[in-house]
Amino acid sequence: MRARLYALIRGFFAERGVLEVETPILSEAANTEPNIESFSTTFTGPVESSSRERWLRTSAEFPMKRLLAAGVGDCYELGRVFRNGEVGRRHNPEFSMLEWYRVGWDHLRLIDEAVELVQAALALCGRRAECVSLTYRELFVQTLALDPFTAPVDVLRAALADANIEASGLERDDWLDLLITHRIQPMFPADHITVVRDWPASQCSLARIRPDSTPVAERFELYLGKHELANGYHELADASEQRARFENDNQRRRQRGQRELPIDERFLSALQQGLPDCAGVALGIERLLMCLCDTDDIRSVLAFDFGRV
């Protein structure tokens, strides 16, 4: 099934003129996102830089955007990524990710293509899913009868009162994330693709912020049944704003007692030179395979899971 899926993906993008690229797995820089931990290793040979420490990528995003800034155009990568500390029925520290970028597109147009790809993958099993698209606010109002942009933190916590969650150090966005994973996501119908768009501006990551009456991040997440498959953005192209977000990440890391991580200066330099208007999305291959194979255990779709290597 994995081999068939890879063949489908490559054919899907070849038909659309999207170039397959390959970018480095090791980097001098790391992912500063406080909720993601990177693996590091040490290079023992001669180096031109001051640090021998290298970081295993958590996604191919930064080097792919450097290619976009250099003019490569529409592109995708299908490869391995690594996240430290994530292991269990739905996580493996080493996994496969499909990431692609479309020049001149926004996140809304990219949603349609992402849904089309997932439907094509489902067709490998003779299946098709109904698609539902709604905003982040609509999701919370319809499922929990609360407005995620205005509800007090105490109200968010009360909706998780029976979940036995350690509350110390949790902020508003943490509670919102927990509501999705513990209350909303498990209710998604198995035969549906659910797309959630226009997230809180505080959860923008690498997305643009749209200055509505309530500013929102031009971001979407795609779910197949209860499995989160993909996360996409109308990409931020402002180098100064991106640097400020990285620095804010490191500030949050310090506050949590986590290590401050090196910022990707080459990526910021590429943004400074000019990133074309584009949208991008990353999709977890194992999560999609779990849906295709009708399993809740990621180990079922890995030849060798973390406990066997």
How would you characterize the overall build of this protein?
It is a single chain. Strands 1, 5, 6, 7, 8, 9, 10, 11 and 12 form a 9-stranded mixed β-sheet that branches. The protein has 309 residues and is an alpha+beta fold. The chain contains 9 helices and 12 strands. It starts with a helix and ends in a 17-residue tail after the last helix. A hairpin with a 2-residue loop joins strand 10 and strand 11 (227-234). It is globular and about 55 Å long. Helices cover 34% and strands 23% of the residues. It has helices spanning 2-15, 61-69, 107-123, 136-144, 153-158, 172-184, 239-256, 265-274, 285-292, and strands at 19-20, 26-27, 40-42, 53-56, 75-82, 94-103, 130-135, 192-200, 209-210, 216-224, 227-234, 278-284. The relative contact order is 0.17. The mean pLDDT is 95. The protein has one domain: BirA Bifunctional Protein, domain 2. The longest helix is centred in the C-terminal third of the chain and has 18 residues, at 239-256.
